[in-house]
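Hi everyone, sorry if this is the wrong subforum. Our group has a chain we'd like a structural model of before ordering constructs, and none of us has done structure prediction before. Sequence below.
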Amino acid sequence: MPGRWSTRVTMAVLLALVAPMAGQGHAQAVDAVRLQLKWLTQAQFAGYYAARAKGFYAAENLTVTIQPGGPSIVPEQVVATGGAQFGIDWLPSLLAVRDRGIGVVNIAQVFAHSGMREIAFKSSGIRGPADLRGRKVAVWFAGNEFELLATLEKYGIDRRRDLTLVPQPSDMGLLLERKVDAAAATTYNEYYTVVDAGVKPEDLVVIDFNQEGTAMLQDGLFAASEWLRDSKNKQIAARFLRASLKGWEFCRRTPGECVDLLLQETPALNRAHQTRMLAEVNKLIWGPPATRTPLGKMDPDAFKRTADIALKFGVITKPADAGAYTDEVWELAQRR
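Answer:
Right subforum, don't worry. Here is the predicted structure as tokens:
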């Protein structure tokens, strides 16, 4: 009996020593990926920064490099040429790129509503889109101009002959200095930049593309179609998406801490502005108005509406095909 007990103890000790080593041998490899943002670092992308800072990516065995964008960066081009595995852009831009034969596919739709607007001073005489004829109108290009272009088309305004389109920088100086008659603005950023500069909201005219019927889906996650054909990459995408959605849920529950994490990343950002931005971004993700689909899952009706608007007003030359988005990565991300 004593000898048998001693043997059992010895075996138990050996197993205890070997088990961690065996676990290390089968540990999942850490995958390094890059995310190309649509714009500069700000609360528009807070969920991704939160996912990194809170360890949600690390928990999925990912190291994530977040690459800021800007007015001249087209995320689809970056992803298509291998500069990043994932990108964020507005759906009409992705559809336009696919229309030219570039293989990228939406894997998750984060924003459920459009925050894009065109704004002008009331003193300019502009009251609505029809009054943009003959004016200097600023807009961001590189895929950000499509809602405006669709609206011009709706009102029979030729973008080449009937007005002057001006490339808009990342600030609102052109409008504030009255160098243009109207300028692009989002509900979560540039609109409040103008108000913070001392302009009263009642002195502004806001052209809301949602009301015009030309609003299209915005921030969505996409990847290169060819890259996703590899089953290993598809699993990486699912892990990345699962962690990213946790980041956005965190920013919804605790927006103050989410802003804190963003400021740790970029201390030069203004806290009050980023706090207000995150509040507006959360509205675009969850509402109001309320959304009927789970976070990140493409609403087929919303996709069709965007695709139909893009086709009707010349953003794309042929109907968008069903391969423009996939639910497969989202569905994989729901599994553990």
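For your construct planning: Strands lie at 31-36, 62-67, 86-89, 104-109, 116-121, 136-139, 164-167, 182-186, 204-208, 220-224. The CA atoms of residues 160 and 215 lie 21 Å apart.
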